[in-house]
Amino acid sequence: MYFNKRKVLTNVLFVLLGGSVSYLAFSNSSPFVRKNMLPAATAAIPANQNSNCGYSLVRGLPSGLVNPLLLVDPDCEAPSYTGLKATLQNYIDENKVAGRITSASVYFRNLSSAEWIDCNPELTYHPGSLAKLPMLFAYLHKAENDPSILKKTIFFDKVEEGHVHTQTFNSKAIVKGHSYTVRELLDYMIGYSDNAATYLLNVNMGFDPYLKIYSDLRLRVPSTANRDYEMSTKEYSRFFIVLYNSTYLSQEMSQLACTLLNNNEFNEGILKGIPSTVKTIHKFGEMGEVKKNSHELHESAIVFLDNKPYLLTVMTKGSDKKVLPEIISKISTLVYEYVQGDKKIPA
């Protein structure tokens, strides 16, 4: 059966990026990516305080005689973070009772030990502009074998109606009648969450490479047949984990991705909850259904605190979109203060 791949791809991204609004998401030589790693079979083996808990190995798709190891995950939540989980859960529950939010989920991971906790893991959310990160992965994965793709020039003349969504916060955006390299468009897509740049990249890449990122990371693959595609905080966090460990993209391309994610103009969520001097890489997205008076705001970040990096992914839903950044900011503060005071976390 014949189908228009361009339309299918843009429809899939329309579903993922959201049909109403999205917050803006966004170089230096700082080491965002883990370097001098052990061989893959022993890399990132977590310290597990629960002797009765096993581990899950997340592997990519087999290729020839190899089956790449992406990450090692303890099956159980870390007992050492029971206090933090209780604090976060209480805060979420208090705000639900007060009617400020409908729901919220939090995934926290100590990147030095792989210990983790997950508040409300059964809930899933529309990723919104978070879906731009796998598109970045698709381009950088291709650039590993063909670096010239980053220099390819694309002319911006028009977009199909309905495929560039309005945004709550507007920043730098590409201009019709101008040409841009793929690298420049990646800057706009990740650095400023420009939907027009995202559209051009989507059409230029094609359908399969984008979806392959999900299957490679053993995540459910989006489909036009499922316009309610959702993810949990832990599922989405996988993108940041393999990026930090450099177990999917090469170290060079992982570093480039982190450089783009480090340049961020939005500071009302996780960044607002921590000192401005703390280095971060992060991405966030929004989904809104105006008729249902329902809004979602999410953010995922790696916070490099005193050589004790941690991953924090927060997803929220509520009727007042002005409240959601405040919720994420307060959760960020609670986590930062807990980690900062935790002397047991290895440096």
Note the topology:
Blueprint: H1 5-17, E1 55-59, E2 69-74, H2 82-97, E3 103-110, E4 116-119, H3 132-143, E5 153-156, E6 178-181, H4 182-191, H5 195-205, H6 207-216, H7 233-245, H8 251-262, E7 279-289, E8 294-304, E9 310-318, H9 324-340
Antiparallel strand pairs: 1-2, 3-4, 3-9, 5-6, 7-8, 8-9
Helix pairs in contact: 2-9, 3-5, 3-6, 3-8, 4-5
Describe the structure.
The chain is of the alpha+beta class and 347 residues long. The chain has one domain (5-340): DD-peptidase/beta-lactamase superfamily (Beta-lactamase). The chain is 33% helix and 18% strand. The protein has helices at residues 5-17, 82-97, 132-143, 182-191, 195-205, 207-216, 233-245, 251-262, 324-340; strands spanning 55-59, 69-74, 103-110, 116-119, 153-156, 178-181, 279-289, 294-304, 310-318. Strand 7 (279-289) and strand 8 form a beta hairpin.
